[in-house]
Amino acid sequence: MFTAPTALRAIRKFDPTGALMKQHDTTSLRTMFVAGERADPDTVSHFQRLLGVPVVDHWWQAEILKSTPQRDFYTVNVLGH
Fold first, then answer.
1. Nearest Cα residue to 47 out of 80, 18, 81
2. Where are the domains of the chain?
3. Chain-wide mean pLDDT for the chain?
4. What's the CA gap between 18 and 72, in Å, rounded?
5. Other C-beta atoms within 10 Å of 34: how many?
6. How do residues 23-52 score in pLDDT, each as one tens digit?
7. What is the DSSP letter of 27?
8. Could you give the CA distance from residue 57 to residue 36 in angstroms, rounded to a whole number?
9. Alpha-carbon distance 52 to 32, whole Å?
10. CA angle in degrees (0–180, nearest 5) for 60-32-18
11. What pLDDT sits at residue 69?
């Protein structure tokens, strides 16, 4: 799953204990990828704890996506391509 850090911060502010999330089946979720802007470590840790899956911060923006060492690292090591 991909989402934006802004969305996660809004969800955390509205539902800090994850009570609403617990009403939904998230067992098929294996990894959450966060992109668009840098995610703060507290938000990443919060959702890793609530979901029980890795939250990978893809801090780069789609507008600057090109062949860079950072992109190649994520593509090879995270996505396995």
1. 18
2. 2-77
3. 80
4. 34
5. 23
6. 999 999 999 999 888 889 999 999 999 999
7. T
8. 9
9. 10
10. 125
11. 52
Question: Strands, E, within the chain: which ranges?
Answer: 2-3, 32-35, 55-58
Give yes or no for a contact between 36 and 4, defined as CB atoms under 8 angstroms apart. yes
Contact indicator for 39, 57 with CB cutoff of 8 Å: yes
Number of residues written out for the chain: 81
CB atoms within 10 A of CB 54: 13
Q: How far is CA 32 from the centre of its chain?
A: 4
3-state secondary structure of 43: helix
**Interatomic CA distance for residues 27 and 59, integer angstroms:** 26
Single-letter amino acid code for the residue at 9: R
Q: Quote the pLDDT of residue 81.
A: 41
Within 10 Å of residue 74's Cβ, how many Cβ atoms?
19
